[in-house]
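User: Here's a chain of 188 residues. Predict its fold as tokens.
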Amino acid sequence: MKKFLIVGLGNIGDAYKNTRHNIGFKILDAVAAAHAVTFETEKLGDIASFGFKGKSFTLLKPSTYMNLSGKAVKYWMDKENIAIENILIVTDDVHIDFGTIRIKAKGTAGGHNGLRDIQEKLNTQEYSRFRFGVGANFARGRQVDFVLGEWDKEETSQLIERLPTSSNAITSFGTDGLANTMNIFNGK
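Assistant: Prediction complete.
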């Protein structure tokens, strides 16, 4: 059975639970709920696994904090013997309009410290990423406050619609392949 590692980036703890920076955790929670699985605390993160259409999915929410995510990704990639082309990193992006999905085969960290650490630990930029737009509704110099801020009411109501789409994009990555998933979900 082909195996996939889906990593949602975020920060652990209640203080970060509903922040924009934790969209990776929130999307993985939606995937787990859609497949009726729960997360268990394991080494370097919370893990949930399920099978879907003949594929095996391991969901990882690293417990290393955002900026040190690479250690958890590398550990679980090696432990589960998952090829780099079967890894998808789910993260927030302030350079994309709120709610918009952008899936890419590779790329730079784009100023994102979590992605930067993953690139350093994996020694490559050649891994797939799923960027969820959180928008850039912040004043100059206030980006950190914005991404670590909680969703406003309008964003929260729109997330209800965006989370199932995001969940479907993740399972599509495993079942339909990266190129098809990009064609179907990018810009949605």
